Amino acid sequence: MGTGIAFGVHLTPQARRAIERADEVFYLLAEHTAEAWFKRLNTNSHSLRRHYAVGRARRETYERMVEEILDAVRNEKNVCAAFYGHPGVFASPSHEAVSRARADGFPATMLPAVSAEDCLFADLGVDPGQSGCQSYEATDFLLRRRTFDTSVPLILWQVAFIGITSAPVAPNAHGFGVLVDYLLGFYAEAHPAIVYQASPYPVGPANIGEFTVGNVRKAELDGMSTLYLPPSADASEDAEMRALLSGSGIESSSESL
Amino acid sequence: MNGGTGDTAALAEFFGRLAEDPALYNDYITDPVGTMRAATPTISEDLIAAVLQGNLRKLSKSFARDSDSVVILGTLVRG
């Protein structure tokens, strides 16, 4: 399950019950400040934070987390694994833990939670229903030159750690520079670029840095920084498709669609 | 436990109480500065400003332990 982004106030009643009734709880929270609060929910709670080590590959870090969780499951315990944000969004170890538990014959359920993307929609006033939404992990976006549409909002995650496979210690300015250069091939220098970070605390606003694609390189990135690019233009309608839809009785004004 | 001493430890405790105490949360919404000062008498003006302005970098640094690497939960990119 996930704790949401702002600790305490984003925790759903469903998730709280899962924590409280578990025999053993394993947790990974972004902020140390949240740990005292979290441990009060279930005194048999163990932090997964200790698996991070400078220089250790993230793949190995996540593997250690998954195996610690699975060891308790195999001991027939009622286990709850809590991760900050949404457990299924940008969270490899939670997916892996559920998958392995099921493969070993144990019932496992993932509970939804408030993700960083949910916070971004609220804080930046973005509605994916308006013109869609493209959301990519930044390294994957670059490595695979993902096809994208500049008339649709673009969200790029983990922009501070592009190309880093070990435990990150500091943002990778070089990787971010490569990303900006790439984006300048698709957007004008003056096009807005927002560096966003949701607040992990129960009160206080998000961090919203307003830049352009041309000058976003000077943004001070943090581990949780996300890059948001609004659409650069409206996509034109397809007349043939509109005609087809009109034939099905849908009104012709784009407002009504 | 929370990695801070003095006012940062008090602020961390205050955040934890906000998460569990609806009355305190309502007080904060009505009067953030007064509620913070009442709950954490040693808190500095600097930290109050950081909370109100959403200065996440300053707050995070205040709470961090020196030996920590950055905790990032993410997706492993294939390849």
Explain this structure.
The complex is a heterodimer of chains A (257) and B (79). Chain A has helices at residues 13-21, 33-41, 58-74, 92-103, 116-124, 128-131, 138-143, 173-183, 239-247; strands at 24-28, 45-47, 79-83, 134-137, 154-157, 192-197, 207-212, 226-229. The longest helix of chain A is centred in the first third of the chain and has 17 residues, at 58-74. A 5-stranded mixed sheet of chain A has the order 4-5-8-6-7. The two termini of chain A are 36 Å apart. Chain A is globular. Chain A has 257 residues and is of the alpha/beta class. The model of chain A has no long low-confidence stretch (mean pLDDT 92). Chain A has 2 domains: 13-103, Cobalt-precorrin-4 Transmethylase, domain 1 (3-Layer(aba) Sandwich), CATH 3.40.1010; 116-229, 2-Layer Sandwich (Methyltransferase, Cobalt-precorrin-4 Transmethylase, Domain 2). Chain B is mainly α and 79 residues long. Chain B has one domain (7-63).
Which pair of chains forms the biggest interface, and how many residues does each contribute?
A-B, 55 and 38 residues
Count the DSSP helices of chain B.
Answer: 5
Taking the alpha carbons of the first and last residues of chain A, their distance comes to: 36 Å
Query: Please, what is the average pLDDT of chain A?
Result: 92
Largest sheet: number of strands, sense, barrel closure of chain B: none
- H-E order of chain A: HEHEHEHHHEHEHEEEH
Rg over C-alpha atoms of chain B, rounded to the nearest angstrom? 15 Å
Low-confidence stretches of chain A: none
- Count every beta strand of chain A, where a strand is a DSSP E run of 2 or more residues: 8
Secondary structure tally, helices of chain A: 9
